[in-house]
Amino acid sequence: MKLKHIYEFGPFRLDAIERVLLREGKPVLVPPKDLETLLVLVESRGHIVEKNELLERVWPGTFVEEGNLAKHISNLRQFLGDGLNEITYIETIARRGYRFVAPVNELEPVPAQTGNPRFVETLPRRGYRFIATANGWEAPAAIEGPRPQPAPTPGAKTALRVLGLAALALAGVVVVLVGLNVSGWRERLLPRIQSLAVLPLENLSGDPSQEYFADGMTEELITQLGKIRALRVISRTSVNRYKGTKKPLQEIARELGVDAVVEGTVARSGSRVRVTANLVRVSPEKHLWSERYERDLRDVLLIQEDVAQAVANEIRVQLTPRERERLSSAHQVNSEAFENYLKGRYLWNKRTEEDLKKALQYFQLAIEKDPSYARAYAGLADTYGVLGSWALDALPPGEGASKQRATARKALEIDETLAEAHASLGGVMHLYDWNWQGAEAEYRRAIELNPGYATAHHWYSQLLQQMGRFDESLAEGNRARQLDPLSLVISASFGWRLYLARRYDAAIEHIRKTSEIDPNFVQAHWYLGQVYEQKGTYSEAIAELQQAAALSKGAPIYLGALAHAYAVSGQRAEAAKLLAKLKERSREHYVSPYNLAVVYTGLGEREEAFEWLERAYQDRSPWMANVKLDPRLDPLHSDPRFQGLLRRIGLPQ
Questions:
Q1: Sheet holding 90-93: strands in order across?
Q2: What is the extent of the structural domain holding 241?
Q3: Domain for residue 182, yes or no?
Q4: Are 373 and 341 in contact (CB under 8 A)?
Q5: What is the rounded (10 degree) CA torsion for 62, 68, 72, 77?
Q6: pLDDT at position 161, please?
Q7: Which residue in 83, 121, 503, 514 could disulfide with 492, CB within 3.0 to 4.6 Å?
Q8: CA 207 to CA 58: how far, in whole Å?
Q9: 138-144: long-range contacts, CB 8 A cutoff, minimum separation 24
Q10: For the residues of 350-390, what is the DSSP string, one character each?
């Protein structure tokens, strides 16, 4: 049986024995290691070739950095014209390896009769034929050239010669400029990179308990890059969905809507940290930059700074003087404090009451190790804010707000440039103090310091809507979605904004899309139930709210919404049962009086509704910021007491 060693793909033919690559019959000068890499990929076409396997097969017995492999892949893409004319040859599989995806034909070797070593034979007035007579094979098919045309006149010959020489000269200049990348011409011909995703750094420590460290390093890098206003950097919530994924890089980029990605690894051994990072343009796919950093744990923030600056330089993004200053402000940290801070943030991101209370402990430990560690205070502020929020009601509003305010201010006393602390302080002013102008100033300051901080845009959107600035609110909400496209909270909350704006059909369409991402996301069912209720489709509303109550294990906010739906649909007995249950629970756990006011409004018991609204006002419940917009309270609007309530809260009437 004859050995098949000629591979044909697109305009290329690859000889596996002679190690020759031809394009349309003409040899392509490819460095040996690039060609070896291509051959491994072509032989394994359609299958993922892991990075380690490539390194072992192309550089057996030699230690080679991953970054060098990425550079060889980048070279191959340039030789092949990968990505041009919508043709893709090599696909990157995030954090795993590469796959050759173009169709490949294997050609049978044909013995040659005689002749000197040649690769291309000219066929007069027809074209070329690919041959290799000295090595015993000959490809049977000829490549047709253009058919003969009538001879031009002498005048036409002169004109054509001049035009041809000019075209050749121009083409030559372009080829030189692009090929040699003089003054960055190759990159200038490509679209600018304006959006970026930092994929979760792979934990190479071999210890699953170190996942918090890899996640924390990823988040730190996102925060650094997010400070660049000209660059849209995807938030942690969205990129974390690709942790351990096998999806191709281009598919991930398409889902996140980005031009480039940063991927890499992190390994920790004792007090030493090693980070590798690669920057890859997505379309056409091209490796732009790779580097490895190794430092002591106390200098870990310098790694984040170095990577952020290298990425900014590579994509030629315009940095303002202040941005340059912020990207060069890293300093040494207490290693134990930093570790405890990362553990706290890891738990804070889980958002359950149990995990949030554990997060408080780690932030406190970080402060004990370093009382001047501003970010630990900011972590405490964020945690108190969530524990005291309407979503959990795990702390009475007064207790949560006072602790949130104190720790946010302490963080800013130490470091005024912390965007998270400004946003957290804005949250207290917004939802507890009802200091609308002060809250807006803090949110805007947070966004100025870190334009990529999706949470600040999200909270600011909420404030703007409550102040009656609907168009601005939706614009900020959209910005938050662009920065964190896969965040369930931000996505569902945008539907809630549409609901409060009384755009019910648009709200239903948007919230349904959120539910498709995660059918068990409780807030989506809660929001959707309220929209259906306002549309008068009570059976659908009750079904959604029952599911929300079940998924949340009977959290008061969802029971209150379900009781209101029962009440307005005429099922007063069911509403009364849930109302009694809420009152009973309030004896052991904080329940916002706002929830009971909503139920009484649904039952048409106006006096009781105002009594509980007054209690909510005295508690300074975060829900009172929505009192004017909540459609469930519409029956109370004509009462002078309601207008008086708006005046005291400071909302426009």
A1: 49-50, 97-100, 90-93
A2: 195-327
A3: no
A4: yes
A5: 150
A6: 61
A7: 514
A8: 29
A9: 138/109, 138/110, 138/111, 138/112, 139/6, 139/13, 139/107, 139/110, 140/110, 143/24, 143/25
A10: T--HHHHHHHHHHHHHHHHH-TT-HHHHHHHHHHHHHHTST
339 with 285, same domain: the answer is: no
Domains contained in the chain, number: 3
Residue 589 maps to a domain: no
Cα–Cα distance, 567 to 650 (Å, whole number): 30
Among 304, 327, 350, the domain-final residue is 327
Alpha carbon separation from 443 to 59, 70, 347 (Å, rounded): 53, 41, 24
pLDDT digits (tens, 9 = 90+) for 66-121: 667 877 887 888 788 876 666 788 888 877 888 899 899 887 655 544 444 444 44
Contacts of 77 (CB under 8 A, 6+ apart): 83, 89, 90, 284, 285, 286, 287
| Residue 490 near residue 458, CB atoms below 8 Å | yes
Residues 298 and 361 in one domain: no
Instruction: Using alpha carbons, list the distances in angstroms from residue 609 to 536, 555, 593.
Output: 22, 20, 10
- Of 128, 144, 160, the residue at which a domain comes to its end is 144
Question: Average pLDDT in the 178-206 region?
Answer: 71
Cα separation, 356 vs 342, in Å, equals 13
Query: Are 320 and 370 part of one and the same domain?
Result: no
CATH number, domain of 356, equals 1.25.40.10
Among 106-120, 121-135, 202-216, 270-284, where is mean pLDDT lowest? 121-135
Verify that 245 and 312 share a domain, yes or no: yes
CA 553 to chain centre: 30
Query: pLDDT tens for residues 450-462?
Result: 999 999 999 999 9
H/E segment holding residue 643: helix 640-649
CATH number for 104: 1.10.10.10
C-alpha distances out from residue 595 to 19, 144, 600, Å: 75, 79, 9
Categorize the per-residue pLDDT at 594 as very low, low, confident or very high, splitting at 50, 70 and 90.
very high
Residues 220 and 113 in one domain: no
Share of the chain above pLDDT 70, in %: 84
Mean pLDDT of 204-208: 82
CA trace torsion 72, 74, 77, 79 (10° rounding)? -60
3 state SS of 495: helix
> Whole-angstrom Cα distance, residue 33 to residue 640?
81
Write 55-64 long-range contacts (CB < 8 A, 24+). Answer: 58/33, 59/33
pTM: 0.73
Within a domain: residue 280? yes
At residue 139 the predicted structure's pLDDT band, cuts being 50, 70 and 90, is: very low
Q: Are residues 201 and 312 in the same domain?
A: yes
Residues 342 and 430 in one domain: yes
- pLDDT tens digits, 505-543: 999 999 999 999 899 999 999 999 999 999 999 999 999
The DSSP-derived string for 203-258 is E-SS-GGGHHHHHHHHHHHHHHHTT-TTSEE--HHHHGGGTT---BHHHHHHHHT-
Spatial contact of 222 and 233, defined as CB atoms under 8 Å apart: yes
Tell me what percent of the chain is helix, strand and coil, each rounded to the nearest 5.
Answer: 60, 15, 30
Q: Would you say the C-alpha torsion 541, 543, 547, 553 has a positive or negative sign?
A: positive
Q: Looking at the structure, do residues 116 and 56 belong to the same domain, yes or no?
A: yes
Structure confidence at residue 25 as a pLDDT band (50, 70, 90): confident
Indicate whether 135 belongs to any domain: yes
Ranges of beta strands (E only) in 29-116 are 49-50, 90-93, 97-100, 105-107
Task: Assess whether the previous peptide bond of 284 is cis (omega < 30° from 0).
Answer: yes
* Average pLDDT of the chain, as a whole number: 85
Most confidently modeled range among 150-154, 330-334, 525-529: 525-529
